[in-house]
Q: What sequence folds into this?
């Protein structure tokens, strides 16, 4: 068995598993996707947390400032009422001690400034800080002195301004921390997911991928089935099992194909040999032309599956011996039996055995014993016709024909057009079928006059079927011969073969076609 | 009841009815493959004064089968103690000539065509 170029290149490409670019690999793409998703989700979570933080920070600043102002409002009112600068300064300093306070002003109820504390160089207001906290920086409360009823008396006001930048700075620090933690979390989650995926799915998939790319198309059954530990009962294990069964089925299919191909090659070779065997020992045109008294035409065409048709025309000192037969079955064994028959017939002629019963007995014994050796049970119909020319026959006959042996009926078409069908069933017995046939052999003798025709054939002619399985038939054969009886043997043969071929048309030839036409000169 | 079956054929010997029946298409490859059928036929002959071989549903018999059947008929003829009847069908092409040849092997053989 030799690899075709296709197979060779296929196995070469199979031995080197297909490489996947790193950026296209499953692990890389899965890691990248997981990382991006984790980052986006992490950042979203951070943003939500930050928003909540912002809200609570604003509330806290307001609450703290309000409570600080409330806390000092009593002392501040006292200071404003008494114009106590020292107390006012203490109150203002207390408030100003908070880092985010930018300005503290305490006024009396005439608008006169009692004390003012301001950050030396208030930093340029940053837009973001203003947007985040700009609306909660200014606080102004009125100061009331609790005196005797009927009511409290307004004595002044205290104003506090906070620095948005200072508030924002601590907020931004928190924000930075949240984002960094979010990123670290995202990366950690992504790495964890990739690792879990890699060991659970990606790694066995890669093993499977490697095994599949190493499959040799010429021997899929020998694929390196991967052992996926811990995956025997899950989907991956099932994939491997299914692939294994598939590869096994492929392998069996390939082996079946190879066997069929080998068998075909063998049969093809056998058929060629059989065809050669059938043609190799046929009489030549020169031999036929040299025969006295007979105009002879012959035709033999092997079927697509060669059968075992036999015919021979042997000239000898006493005349001519014509043999025609059909070995059962097709193929080499039938051809071999046919070859043995040809040889045995010639041997009986060479040994000058005149007695036709003895001739048939010897032939039968030879073929029977060989067929027993072959163990194939082949046998053949065989008719032998002995012809000799007549000179000075009182009845005007020009030749005499003795027919013996069992074969298809012999057709005699007289020059006058009258037809004789000679049934040969009782003239012999199948050759090679049983040990003794002598008792079944008989012979018929008939005289031939000028232009009488003798037609010998095998059942390939009479049983040639058309597309409706209609057989060519003995009747049609006889009628055609009668129509063409005035023509030469060659012309009669041609006309019949043409007619048989027209009957078969496009159908396959299932049996050998053999036809022998003898015409008395 | 002794029976054999294979690809496309059955062979059975009904001892009570004294009948061997072959059905289907027999295409065994060679004489040795017919040995079991040959044995079944020979066994059917043993100690029997009359036997029918029914081939009326045997659509096809290859040459090894015909050789086997011929041997069987010769064996029956040589025993001289069993009246043999072969039942065939006139609609099955291979039987006409072949069964007549069997009759010539054993003239006392009774040939019945359905």
A:
């Amino acid at each position: 068995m030799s690899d075709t170029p296709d197979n060779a290149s296929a196995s070469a490409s199979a031995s080197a598993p297909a490489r996947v670019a790193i950026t296209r690999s499953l692990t890389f793409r899965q890691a990248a996707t997981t990382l991006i998703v984790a980052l986006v989700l992490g950042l979203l979570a951070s943003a939500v947390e930050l928003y909540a933080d912002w809200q609570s920070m604003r509330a806290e600043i307001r609450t703290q400032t309000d409570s600080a102002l409330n806390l000092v409002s009593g002392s501040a009112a006292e200071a404003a009422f008494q114009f106590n600068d020292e107390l006012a300064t203490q109150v203002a300093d207390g408030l100003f001690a908070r880092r985010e306070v930018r300005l503290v002003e305490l006024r009396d109820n005439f608008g006169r400034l009692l004390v003012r504390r301001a950050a030396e160089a208030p930093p340029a207001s940053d837009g973001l800080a203003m947007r985040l906290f700009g609306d909660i920086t200014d606080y102004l409360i009125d100061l009331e002195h609790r005196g005797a009823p009927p009511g409290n008396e307004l004595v002044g006001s205290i104003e506090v301004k906070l620095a948005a930048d200072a508030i924002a700075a601590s907020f931004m620090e928190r924000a930075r921390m949240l984002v960094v933690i979010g990123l670290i979390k995202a990366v950690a989650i992504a790495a964890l997911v990739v690792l879990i995926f890699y060991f659970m799915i990606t790694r066995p998939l890669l093993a499977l991928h490697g095994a599949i790319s190493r499959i040799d198309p010429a021997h899929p059954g020998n694929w390196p089935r991967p052992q996926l530990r811990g995956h025997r009962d899950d989907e991956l294990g099932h994939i491997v099992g299914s692939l294994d069964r598939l590869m096994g089925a492929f392998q069996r299919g390939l082996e079946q194909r190879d066997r069929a191909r080998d068998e075909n090659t063998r049969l093809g070779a056998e058929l060629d040999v059989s065809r050669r065997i059938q043609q190799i020992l046929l009489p030549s045109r020169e031999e036929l032309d040299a025969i006295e008294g007979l105009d002879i035409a012959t035709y033999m065409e092997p079927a697509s599956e060669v059968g075992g048709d036999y015919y021979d025309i042997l000239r000898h000192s006493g005349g001519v011996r014509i043999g025609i037969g059909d070995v059962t079955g097709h193929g080499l064994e039938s051809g071999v039996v046919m070859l043995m028959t040809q040889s045995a017939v010639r041997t009986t002629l060479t040994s000058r055995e005149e007695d036709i019963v003895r001739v048939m007995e010897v032939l039968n014994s030879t073929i029977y014993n060989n067929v027993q050796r072959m163990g194939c049970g082949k046998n053949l119909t065989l008719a032998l016709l002995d012809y000799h020319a007549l000179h000075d026959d009182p009845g005007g006959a020009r030749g005499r024909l003795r027919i013996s042996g069992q074969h298809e009926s012999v057709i005699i078409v007289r020059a006058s057009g009258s037809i004789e069908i000679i049934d040969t069933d009782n003239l012999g017995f199948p050759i090679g079928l049983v040990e003794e046939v002598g008792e079944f052999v008989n012979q018929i003798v008939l005289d031939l006059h000028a232009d009488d025709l003798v037609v010998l054939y095998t059942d390939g002619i009479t049983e040639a079927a058309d597309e409706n399985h209609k057989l060519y038939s003995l009747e049609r054969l006889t009628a055609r011969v009668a129509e063409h009886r005035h023509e030469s043997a060659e012309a009669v043969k041609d006309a019949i073969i043409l007619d048989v071929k027209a009957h078969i048309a496009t159908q396959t030839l299932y049996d050998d076609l053999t036809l022998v036409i003898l015409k008395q000169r | 009841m002794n029976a054999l079956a294979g690809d496309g054929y059955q062979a059975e010997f009904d001892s009570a009815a004294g009948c061997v029946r072959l059905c289907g298409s027999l295409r065994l490859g060679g004489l040795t493959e017919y040995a079991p059928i040959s044995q079944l036929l020979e066994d059917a002959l043993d100690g029997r004064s009359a036997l029918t071989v029914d081939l009326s549903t045997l659509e096809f018999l290859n040459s090894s089968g015909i050789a086997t059947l011929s041997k069987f008929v010769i064996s029956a003829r040589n025993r001289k103690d069993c009246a043999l009847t072969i039942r065939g069908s006139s609609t099955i092409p291979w039987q006409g000539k072949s069964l007549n040849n069997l009759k010539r092997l054993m003239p006392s053989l009774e040939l019945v065509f359905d």
